[in-house]
Specification:
Order of helices and strands: HHEEHHHHHH
Number of strands: 2
Number of helices: 8
Structural class: mainly alpha
Shape: globular
Helix content: 55-70%
Strand order of the largest sheet: 1-2
Radius of gyration: 20 Å
Length: about 230
């Protein structure tokens, strides 16, 4: 009589996913804590005053980093799309299905943030009265609904999402090219953090706006690659 066999690898395969779900939940708590702390205004006051934000239209922050980031993101998407038609050294070991999921997840992350932003009544820091705008004083939970009296449509940060949306590449690369996955993860974090810092010093966003974008992009990647895993490694 054949005895039933146990797949000893299955629990081991589930552990990274469980760890990431826990990390995602802890990340959410940290973002909520920052949003409620009032530190957004503390940081903004370092860069802005009643005259506005000195870095708002500086060549480095606006022209080079803010405007140039779109070109960098488009180049990265072109690389991913091109890998479906041509051999790309970095991606040749990644199955086509994983690359399709990678592209779709990146776009979905950005779209999610853009849609939420369009529905938001939260205004940018430079729109607040304290910084020369018309919006009412900032409150930690304005983003839950209603309007602050300004133009709104500033939460979460779409530009931060342009960088953090590429975090999902770590999930796509890790089973097939672990070293490349690490490099991609670091590059995506640097890209997202650079865009976030730029938007904060320009007065375009509070820190919390960028943190929420990062968490939403991360959560989208977890859903795409953990909740709906792909077969075939």
């Amino acid at each position: 009589m054949d005895l039933p066999t146990m797949d000893l690898d299955e629990p081991q395969a589930q552990r990274p996913a469980q760890t990431e779900f826990i990390a995602l939940a802890l990340g959410l708590l940290l973002v909520l804590a920052w949003s409620a702390s009032g530190l957004d205004l503390v940081v903004a006051r370092h860069f802005g005053s009643a005259r506005g934000f000195d870095w708002r239209d500086a060549w480095l922050t606006r022209r080079l980093i803010h405007d140039g980031s779109t070109g960098v993101a488009c180049a990265a998407m072109a690389l991913l799309a091109g890998s479906l038609l041509f051999s790309v050294p970095l991606l040749r070991d990644v199955p086509r299905a994983w690359r399709w999921r990678w592209i779709a997840t990146t776009l979905a992350s950005i779209l999610l943030v853009v849609v939420l932003r369009q529905q938001s009544g939260v205004s940018c820091p430079w729109s607040l009265k304290e910084f020369g705008g018309v919006a009412a004083a900032w409150t930690s939970w304005t983003w839950l609904g209603g309007s602050d009296g300004g133009p709104g449509q500033c939460f979460p940060s779409a530009h931060a999402a342009i960088g953090f949306a590429f975090l999902c590449g770590w999930h796509a690369l890790r089973p097939h090219a672990p070293r490349a996955a690490t490099v991609w993860l670091i590059a995506s974090l640097v890209f997202g953090l650079a865009l976030s810092a730029t938007q904060v010093v320009r007065g375009a966003h509070f820190v919390s706006h960028c943190l929420w974008s990062a968490w939403l992009c991360w959560a989208t990647a977890v859903v795409a690659f953990r909740v709906m895993p792909l077969r075939g490694r």
